[in-house]
Amino acid sequence: MSVEKFGIVVATAIGGYALYVVIYGLFICPTRHLPGPFITRFSQIPHLLLVFGGTHCTDIRKLHDRYGPIVRLTPQRVAVLHPEAALRAFTGQNESKLIWDKDPANCRAVRGGLNVDNVLSISGPKASQRMRRLVGAPFAKKFLFDQEHVFKDCTKRMTERISKLCEGDPRVDVLVEYKNYALDILSTSLGVILIIAEFAFGGYFKGASNTSGVSVTRLAEEVPMANVSLPILC
User: Domain range holding 7?
Assistant: First the structure.
């Protein structure tokens, strides 16, 4: 095949694909009727730019401010800012009475590098509900209300620590602070861990704010327990 014919074949293939993308975005795209940037009917690239840009959450918030509670991010992905959607998706309050299947990529992410599943990393609805029943008692509404003061105190310490870190550098590794938050709640709530914290670390973790010389931030970065407790507590 000559170079000229090869160029024609490549140009035809590219043109055919571009025509398919346009037709798909205008007439076939399942999210075409939803509000969102027009370019998101045709491509995932704008959303990937948001993800790798480092300001994904802020950018999504701006899109919601502009387009409303439902925003199209890609031809197959939407962002929903409504509590009812979470109830329908993750508590089974829908026609099938089952939770929705979860994105496999997200399941791998919330597993925290471990080879075992937690409540958030199980993708199937029946297996997920089975796990929820096993761990449901400590997270019942009454129990959580009884521990409300613990969550409030830990949240206050976390926000104070983030504010203090922002004084030196406006960029804060929020994931590490969430892990500190999980460890803080565990060290305050669970008696055994509380005793260990008292004797081994000289006090509560308190969002890595203790002065006992132990780097709890490093602990939160390296101990898998923080990766497991974070999705369960949050």
Answer: 3-81
